[in-house]
Design a protein that fits this description.
alpha+beta, Fumarylacetoacetate hydrolase, domain 2, five-stranded mixed sheet, 5 helices, 16% helix, globular
Length: 205
């Protein structure tokens, strides 16, 4: 299982998702962090916390960094990619709306399911992201639908913070996000080659 030093996420990077959430498309990439403690492997349960009444799935293309990036050009960023993974930026939507920042909404343990290993040498522009809940397709988009392309995102982030080998960058979710309830099974697939599947349970503690 991937153990990133840090997880850098990009919000509202698909126009249709920004619209469905009632937000404008950002002029610059909107970035935030998820804690590494939120990572779980395929098969492990997403635990719905008692603090939230509305937890949603967000299927995303995750990019794993292979070599350090600092103040990189888009071309340097592209060359530094180790591979891509399917991932799920699970979000407590009610807490995201009530809090001034998103750490709590995005940071619960089990809120970052990630596929086992990055898949290298893929054509980033043609990647497809698909999310299914209980075998019903809920999200589908391609990387070409992103507001900010992947190599530009990495270059932008590297001008703010150094991206180290093993770091994970979540590139945004398309439209179609929705709530999860105990008993659901969520599957996120990238390009037909990377997938992460997780059952959903309630927090019993």
């Amino acid at each position: 299982m991937i153990r990133p030093g840090k997880i850098v996420c990009v919000g509202r990077n698909y126009r249709d998702h920004a619209r469905e959430m009632g937000n404008d498309v950002p002029v610059e990439p909107l970035i935030f962090l998820k804690p590494p403690s939120s990572v779980i492997a395929t098969g492990s349960p997403i635990v719905l916390p008692r603090a939230s009444n509305h937890v949603e799935f967000e299927g995303e293309i995750g990019v794993v960094i292979g070599t350090a990036l600092r103040r990189a050009t888009p071309e340097e960023a592209l060359a530094a990619i180790r591979g891509v993974v399917a991932m799920n930026d699970v979000t407590a939507r009610d807490l995201q709306r009530s809090d001034a920042q998103w750490t709590r909404a995005k940071g619960f343990d089990s809120f970052c399911p990630v596929a086992a290993a990055p898949v290298p040498d893929l054509d980033l522009d043609t990647l497809t992201i698909v999310t299914r809940v209980n075998d019903l397709e809920r999200q589908r988009a391609t990387a070409a639908d992103m507001v900010f392309p992947i190599h530009d995102l990495l270059a932008y982030i590297s001008r703010i913070m150094t991206l180290d080998p093993g770091d994970l960058v979540a590139t945004g979710t398309p439209a179609g996000v929705g709530p999860l309830v105990p008993g659901d099974v969520v599957e996120v697939i990238v390009g037909g080659v990377s997938r992460v599947t997780n059952p959903v349970i309630a927090d019993e503690e």
